[in-house]
Amino acid sequence: MRIIFITTVVGILLGLIYWFSRKSSKPLTVNNTCVSCNLCTKACPFDLAPYNAKGTATGFTHSDCLKCEKCVAACPKQSLV
Ligand code: SF4
Ligand code: SF4
Questions:
Q1: Domain ranges of the chain
Q2: pLDDT in tens, 9-42
Q3: Mutation to probe ligand 2, out of 28, 48, 52 (largest number of atoms < 8 A from CB)
């Protein structure tokens, strides 16, 4: 019984940490070096297209985005920051 309680509490705490980390991280922005090569979308686990936010002041946000930054790592132009 005690182990179930501890596991539940730890699970709730980890969930809150994950939720706050997603909420607090800033949106991706796309600078003018983007050449629309689509490599960021190919790297994204959800096929999201952050480069569509090029030129926008708000940057890229999407409810499915995990902020994993795989797109950032895949960009050959360092366009995503
Ligand atoms: S990988 Fe970089 S250069 Fe290519 S479309 Fe995405 S943001 Fe633009
Ligand atoms: S941060 Fe991750 S989930 Fe979000 S757009 Fe980039 S690759 Fe996709």
A1: 2-74
A2: 777 777 766 666 555 578 899 999 999 999 999 9
A3: 48
